[in-house]
Each structure stands twice: as structure tokens, then as C-alpha cells.
Amino acid sequence: MDTQRTVATELVIGGGHVLVPDQGLVPCDIVIDNGLILEVTARADYGGARRLDATGCLVLPGIVDLHGDAFERQIMPRPRTMFPLGMATRETDRQLAANGITTAFHGLTVSWEPGLRSLAQTLRIIAALDEAENALLVDNRLHIRWETFAIEEVPAVITLLRRQKTPLLAFNDHTTPSLAGVRKDSKIAKSAERAMLEPADYLALLAQQESRAGEVDTAVEVLAAIARELAVPILAHDETSPEMRRAFRALGVTISEFPMNWETAEEGAAAGEHIVFGAPNVVRGGSHNGAIGAQEAVSRGLCTVLATDYYYPAPLHAAFRLAEENVLPFEAAWNLVSAGPAAAARLTDRGRLEAGRRADLIVVHPGERRVLATLSNGRLVYRSA
Q1: Most buried of 58, 264, 271, 348 (most Cβ within 10 A)?
Q2: How far apart are CA 19 and CA 354, in angstroms?
Q3: Fold classified for 6-60+353-383
């Protein structure tokens, strides 16, 4: 992998087929100046400007990832085995650039659990990201996944919502299913490993959370109100019914993340809301845990965003697969990993290749489906040999 931090001033990306909004793949050039797309033109003649040859390749908007936690494997690649956060942050950033992801919302959990998804660990990860920010290759952002039984952590979440670079806020409830005995023993064991506890100790801690159930609704309402005030996009994770979708909608939660059944997805779609599914689900031909199929959701018009979830290469390959199998035209398929998530996150400066937008784009070999170059805010941050 070859990473560079070249600022693109009058850089011409020429000879490729550019994904032009509402036109599809068009043979043309892109001119970049001071981090922005200056012009998308039939053929650019900019004299001595530097050129990046994209002949035979596709030039596509950079991928915007709303929900990714693959970075956790850099921090804890094996149970109870933690690596330095600075090392994990840099390696994650390199993987993002190499896979064409120019904006990444890292799914950072604020839970009542100790270990990898505790508030303390999340704050350490954020500190590592902040420390490295000026050296990072792509735009690394926060997706705050608040476990709704983590009542005591509400003040900390409010502080995170006030960060200068607006995060996402997601309401997660993995506690109620566990208390109801819905989660299998294997999943409890995995959660215990992540929390660095023995299963019996984890179950004892879980049982203590039952006393907080009566406080959850109020805490959700408080955080939703603050997020609305701060214009923070809000997601609800693993919604199980249309009634739940309507209840969250009433709180200003307009993004349904991994709805658990067709009825819930249909409720969101009928309201014109964003619906997130996992790109790995498309690539693998189905969910790894028996959830509804993302490709079918796309074909039924019940998906507006595909996220990396747990595997960074997935969005690029998912878009190509959807087009190859005639589920969607290529432009519509690519919008699921670029324009769609950018709109859901209210990032109006990226996701489409148009004059005046950030020069977040990638050059892809169509036959190999391999990223050859990645530009983030006009900087050439990755180039394959």
C-alpha cells in the first residue's frame, strides 16, 4: 500500500468514466483545486496541471460509511487481547483509504458493560482519533451508539453530541433481549469476552440492569431532544415493529438502522425515511445472523444506505454485485454507498461528483473491482501499485 498526503491544486483526473449525477458513467475529466471539484468536463485542458491517468477505469464518489465497527478488530483482534489505540487508529485509517471509504462514522458504543464497549474505552478511542486527526488519510467521524440502559452515561453522551464535528447518535437496546433470554448462550459468551468478564459475572451484571428499565424511556426522550436541538442525525438500531418505528419517529429519529422485519422496513420507507442495511449482507448473499436479506430489501425499495457494518471492503463489492445481478442500475447501486449515506448524515458537501463539492473520489479498476487511487478532500491519500 502506498499512502501519500499530496494536496491537489489543479489536478486533472483524466481518461476515465466518471459517475456523473443523473447521467451515469460518462467519459470525461475531473479538475480539482484546493480540495474541491472545480469542473467535470468532457476533456480538460489545463496546461501544466498535474494529471492522474484513469484510462480504462471508473471514477466514483468516495464511499460514505454510516456504521462501521471493523476497527474493533484492530483494537481487540482476539478475546481479551488489546492493542495500542494509536496503532489501531492508523491501521484502520489505512484500510479505509485502501477500500475507497473517504468518510467513516465509527460505531463507538457507550454501554453499561465494561471492556471494549464501555464509556471509558470509547473516550480513549475518541482521544486517539483526535490526537491523530491531522495525520489521518480520510475523514474519520463518530457514530455514538448509546445503549439505552446506560442511564448513568447520559451526561457523557450529551457532551459528545456537542463536539464541533457533528456525530451521529444511535439508540441501541441489546439489554432487553438479553434480559428476556432471547440472546443465545453463544452471544452472551461473546459479549462477556468483549467485556473482559467471565460469563457468570456478565450475567450477574446484566441482571442488575433490570432495575433501570423504568428510566429508559425518559432518558431516550432527553437525548433525542438534545440531539434535535443540535441538529444531530439520530438512528434507531434493530427496530422490531412498525409501532417502534412510529414511536422513534415522533422523537425525531428518522433513520432506521437494520430493521428486524419487513413490516418495520416498510413503515420507514412509506415515510420516506433512510433505512440502513449491511453491505456484507449483500456480498455474502444473506445475513450472518438470520436477519432479513439486504439485497431483497434493496430490490423492494426498502434500503437507502449500505454500511460496512463489520467489513470495510463490502460497500464497493456490494454495489457492483447489485448492478451485475440487475437489482439496480450501477448509479443507483453506488448511491447506496455514497449519496444516500451522505444525505442521511446531512453532509451536503460530498457523495456526488459535482462542481463545488469536496474532492472525495476513488479510481476503480472495473474488472478487478479494486481501488487504484483514493482522494480525500483533494489529497491523494492512497494509490495502488
Answers
A1: 264
A2: 10
A3: Urease, subunit C; domain 1 (2.30.40)
